[in-house]
Amino acid sequence: MRRRRPTPGYEDRDEPNADGILSLEARRVLTLLARRWTLPILNALRAGHSRPSRLTRIIGGVTEKVLVETLRALEEERLIDRSVYPEVPLRVEYQLTDKAMRLCDALVALDDWAERESILSRDPSAAAESRA
Length: 132
Hints:
The chain is mainly alpha-helical. It has 6 helices and 2 strands; from the N terminus they run H-H-H-H-E-E-H-H. It has a domain at 24-97: Orthogonal Bundle (Arc Repressor Mutant, subunit A). It has a two-stranded antiparallel sheet with strand order 1-2. The longest helix has 20 residues, at 98-117.
């Protein structure tokens, strides 16, 4: 079993809520989600299992090295399952776990909230109009 790498910046903190509102686990999840290719990969896998080459085509722009690194990180967190089929050539497929499906549900809820609240509006006049 591979040893987990600590989330950068949070290795030495023993208290789960040392920084305020978010627990250590929530910060770890947000750190993983903040990686450039995590959300596109999760989104691509929501449609079902997929091979790495198909993920590369669906997502576009991701290198094989970065795709593999991100898939490994998601696998370590038990957000995806990796299935290896003993064929020639070897076939590998990835799919979301139940844990990842629940995470995706939470992300959809977050997206709905963000759309309703428009807290990060780039146009200050639009935000002022919505409050009026």
